[in-house]
Amino acid sequence: MHPPGRPDKLRAEHLPKIKVPMLFVQGSRDAFGTKQEIEALITRLKLPAELYSIEGGDHSFKVPKSVGPQEKIYTEAMNYIVGWLAHTFR
User: Fold this and answer.
1) Residue 2, class by beta-carbon neighbours within 10 Å (0-12 exposed, 13-18 middle, 19+ buried)?
2) Which of 9, 39, 50, 77 has a 20 to 30 A CA-CA distance from 16?
């Protein structure tokens, strides 16, 4: 949503123009926007959007080994996306 370390340079002006449901998938350690920033943006702009946050994930969804196997994290995210699409666009 913004360049790393520059939350004052928000890149969201186009989002209110999108009228279809949106799913944001991001890591909780993403330098381009924290979970709290994205949740606040969704609320403030009244976006038809939902957030799936990958706990411990960075911008590429990579997590520390202590969180679990990387492949499992990717599989869980993909399963969530597939379920969201099926539910949202049935």
Assistant:
1) middle
2) 77
